Amino acid sequence: MTNKDISNNNTVAQLAKSIYNQFVKTESCCSSIEYQEKIYFIRGECEETLIDLINELTESLKKNPNNTIDLIYKGKICFIVGKYEEALEDLTKILEIEQDNIVALRYRGEIYYMMKRYNDSIADLKKLLRIIPHDTWANETCKLIEDS
């Protein structure tokens, strides 16, 4: 994504969707090397843009604090740039609005795992597995936690 691409996106939602489609959208690969390489690329190449986007989403959420789309984008982007506490707040808010939101359960479960809050992680992942029983990443992470 170039500065020209960013300038052409005139709304927060368009920019968030563009970043999501190019870098964030993955299926069951949260623990893979490929995913980590994407995170390092994003943080190195786009971190300033992502921080600006977080700020714009924060302003948007002041007007409409229950906008789950903005909360999801903000939570994912905070996760990418390592703002885990802020991501947890947004993901938890999503789950207060939509308790079976699979995106929020997955990301919050992963953040809890990274923070070594294993009981919280396993609770989110088991709930995710009740919704999507064959989620490979969630199954493997639950097994990893239970075996340790």
List the helices and strands and how they pair.
Blueprint: H1 3-8, H2 12-24, H3 33-63, H4 68-80, H5 84-97, H6 102-114, H7 118-131, H8 136-147
Outline the structure in words.
This is Tetratricopeptide repeat protein. Keywords: Repeat, TPR repeat. It holds the Pfam family TPR_2. InterPro entries: TPR-like_helical_dom_sf, TPR_2, TPR_rpt, Ycf3. By secondary structure, this protein is an all-alpha fold. It has a single domain, classed as Tetratricopeptide repeat domain (Serine Threonine Protein Phosphatase 5, Tetratricopeptide repeat). Helix content is 78%, strand content 0%. The chain contains eight helices and no strands. 30% of the residues are buried. The N terminus is likely disordered.
